[in-house]
Amino acid sequence: MIDIEKVDEIIDKWGCDPDFVIEMFQDVQDHFRYIPRKALERIADRTGKPRGKLFHIVTFYKAFSLEPRGEKEIQVCMGTACYVRGAPDVLAAMERELGIKSGKTTADGKFTLSEVRCLGACGMAPVVTVDGRVYGRVGSSDIPGIIREMRRPQ
Ligand code: FES
Fold first, then answer.
1. Of all helices (H) and strands (E), which one includes residue 148?
2. Ligand 1 mean position to 136 CA, how many Å?
3. Residue-wise pLDDT tens digits, 96-112
4. Which domains does the chain have, with CATH numbers?
5. How many A from CA of 1 to the centre of ligand 1?
């Protein structure tokens, strides 16, 4: 069950204006770390935008997710430079270490793993980012250490 009052608060913040549904979704995504179906329906009902149209928006923008995301986002670059320098092995090691496939979130809700195209740091290939923090020249043997570091309480 989601906090629908929070969703209403976000809708009100944007004046219930159908021209600001993307901004509403951004706030919903920031708060819940995904777009719950109930939130989408609420935004549709209150702004008068058709649900189908909103669903299309949410699936179109990569920043939005209809599934809960982890507390930390791990991205493995699969761009050409990283790929030729061993990114597939890095991704496989990451999947092994986390026990999930790329695109999924760990059961404890800590990590979401995804593949991306060129992070713009090709000179450091292969590249991995965790919540925007960049790790360069990563080998598959580095993965357990990176995950251990991320699991440590901040
Ligand atoms: S291809 Fe990976 S950073 Fe450019």
1. helix 143-151
2. 10
3. 999 999 999 999 999 99
4. 4-60 (no CATH), 72-151 (3.40.30.10)
5. 39
